[in-house]
Design goal:
This protein is mainly beta. The chain has a single domain, classed as Nucleoside Triphosphate Pyrophosphohydrolase (Alpha-Beta Complex), CATH 3.90.79. It has one helix and nine strands. The strands form three sheets. Strands 1, 2, 5, 7 and 8 form a five-stranded mixed sheet that branches. Strand 3 and strand 4 form a beta hairpin. The protein starts with a strand and ends in an 11-residue tail after the last strand. The relative contact order is 0.27.
Length: 95
C-alpha cells in the first residue's frame, strides 16, 4: 500500500438518534467517503453527506481524526437538522 486513504465522515444527530446508511454490500455506515485531492475535509464531509443522503449540512463541527490501517477518517458532527435538498429514492445511492 502506497498511502492511507483520507476520508470524511459525518455523524448526524436527528431527534436523539444518529443517521446511518446501508451501502450496496448491506454494511451499516455513517455517511461519508473519500476526500478529493486539494479538497478540505469539511467540504468533503458536506459533499458526501449530500451525495449519500440528499441532505445539506448547515453547521458541521470537526470532532476528531481516527486512523485505521488503511484510512485516516476526519469525523464531523451535524447538530442541527440538515435540510433535504432533493427527493431521494430509499435504498439508492445518489451521485
Amino acid at each position: 500500500m502506497i498511502g492511507k486513504r483520507c476520508r470524511a465522515t459525518v455523524i448526524v444527530e436527528v431527534e436523539d438518534a444518529i443517521l446511518l446508511a446501508i451501502n450496496n454490500d448491506d454494511l451499516v455506515l455513517l455517511p461519508g467517503g473519500g476526500i478529493k485531492r486539494d479538497e478540505l475535509p469539511i467540504v468533503a464531509a458536506a459533499r458526501e453527506l449530500h451525495e449519500e443522503t440528499g441532505l445539506v449540512a448547515k453547521a458541521l463541527t470537526y470532532l476528531f481524526s481516527h486512523e485505521s490501517p488503511s484510512n485516516v477518517h476526519q469525523v464531523f458532527l451535524q447538530l442541527r437538522k440538515a435540510i433535504r435538498s432533493q427527493p431521494m429514492t430509499p435504498g439508492v445511492w445518489s451521485s
